[in-house]
Amino acid sequence: MSGRAPGQGRLSPAASPRVLVSGPIIPPGNVPAARDNARLAPAADPVQWAYVPGGDLPAGEWHRAQTVSGLWWSDTVLSAGHLPITGLPLAEATVLAAALGGRIPTSAEWEWMASAGRRRFPWGEHEPTPAHANLRDLGPGHPVHVRQLPAGRTPQGLWGVAGNVWEWTLAPGRRDGIALLRGGSYNSLPQYVSCAHANDVLPTLVSPGIGIRIVRDTRPPSASDRMEGCL
Questions:
Q1: Of the candidates 27, 87, 196, 205, which lies 20 to 30 Å from 167 by C-alpha distance?
Q2: In the 8-state DSSP scheme, what is residue 3?
Q3: Which phi and psi (to 5°) does residue 99 adopt?
């Protein structure tokens, strides 16, 4: 990625593979293979969905101009005990997403969800404060409850889009197999949580600072009419 300050934009991989579920660390030998990651689904908190209407996303550093469809999003990153589920490489995150009824979003879909093509930050134009996002020097230095900071919500009610943990996204236009992380983490500085910022990483990266937000193309069977501010 361009303009990344050393040690600030990219989280280093964990020293050994691990999956963080509601705090405890599963030792490396117990990390499930991708085909078995549906077993994590019962440990996950129930997914609550929020609808984000579609629209025209201007071209950015990571994508061409395109029309993004209206989609149903998990209103937080996937969690267990209200803490983010982290430590999964992209392939395993994809399996867990499917087990919970969704998929990993593309980077362009994520940027539209976060910005509607115009907001600098998910909540608007104001710089982050401790009330908006869990970031370096603005939080406790570790992931927090996924619904802890209401001032940082998007207009459609999505929580924690900036800070707390990075979010896996796909980069379908790239031929080098690189994935893109979005949103920043508890270890990020404010400039890394703008809606336009992305971090290019290998999809095999494992980190306690990378989480998973999922999306659906169709209305989830259990969804209530949570189209807050959309109609």
A1: 27
A2: T
A3: -65, -25
99 vs 40, 41, 74, 180, CA distance in Å? 9, 6, 13, 22
- Would you call 220 exposed, middle or buried from its count of C-beta atoms within 10 A (0-12, 13-18, 19+)? middle
Strand 210-211 and strand 166-169: pairing? parallel
**Distance separating alpha carbons of residues 66 and 117, to the nearest angstrom:** 11
Give the DSSP per-residue string, 37-81.
GGGGGGGSPPP-EEEE--EEEPPBTTB--EEEPPEEEESS--EET
Band (43; pLDDT cuts 50, 70, 90): confident
Take residue 55 and report the two structure tokens written for it.
């629209």
**33: which DSSP letter?**
P
| Alpha-carbon gap, residue 174 to 67, rounded angstroms | 18
**Residue 97 structure tokens:** 């997403």
Which position has the token pair 């796909």?
A: 170
* Paired sense of beta strands 79-80 and 66-68, if any: unpaired
Confidence at 10, pLDDT banded by 50, 70, 90: very low
Q: What is the pLDDT of residues 58-70, one digit of tens each?
A: 998 888 899 999 9
Indicate the pairing of strand 166-169 with strand 179-182: antiparallel
Query: Is residue 107 within 8 Å of 169, Cβ to Cβ?
Result: yes
81 burial (CB, 10 Å; 0-12 / 13-18 / 19+) is middle
Q: Name 71's bridge partners.
A: 52
